[in-house]
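EI: anyone free to look at a 238-residue chain?
SC: sure, send it
EI:
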Amino acid sequence: MHEGRFPVGQEMDVSYPEFAVHLTLHSETQMTFEIADGPYAHTETVEIAVVPLGNGSFAVSWQEESGATVANVQDFDRNVVHSFVTLPRGDFLRLTGPIMVTRPADRASDDRPLRNKALVLEAMTALFQRRDAEAVERFYAPDYVQHNPNIPQGRDALTAIVAELSADVWYEPGMMVAEGDLVAIHGRITGWGPVPQVVVDLFRVENGLLAEHWDVLQGEAESPIGGVPMFDPEEGKR
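SC: here you go
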């Protein structure tokens, strides 16, 4: 397992339709569950096996003292647990419930920011360097929301814009900042207007696709009063 990805130390409540369970993730090999009410009420510390599934999801399995076996898909991107339980008498349960974190993990385990930055960078360069109109369908959600007042809503409008871009349009990515499902990218685009424009694009990522977009654009000054350029092509490497 990739060290630090499984959220060791995290405590969370999972609310299934018929009961709730409190989970404490002690390590990658041990977990405690507490069911306070209902026919399955009890507390037990179990030995677990954890298999990373990618994109913030893990398969977690164990066997209880009663002989019951449980397999969880713990999806920390979507904050949901899918649980598959075989009871000692052979009854089989399929349960799905949302996660409410009550104590964060001992160390950061969320790799969404890195994945989301890579998604935004690839989308921006595909559209505004390679002028690949087909990339819109690959990278943007079907119900994509556009906050730029000069661009119509939806993927079709964005696809049409990219398909009609002049060969003079060129985008240079700079620094990027990401947290949770949000990514901001600072860049410069030439050929879009009469002067190069420095732009900050802000995206919200949902289910691995760009779901929402905001931007702020400003014409690049040739001689800034403070002597510091508005955009440095090397800033993204720092």
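EI: The two ends are 29 Å apart (CA to CA).
SC: 👍
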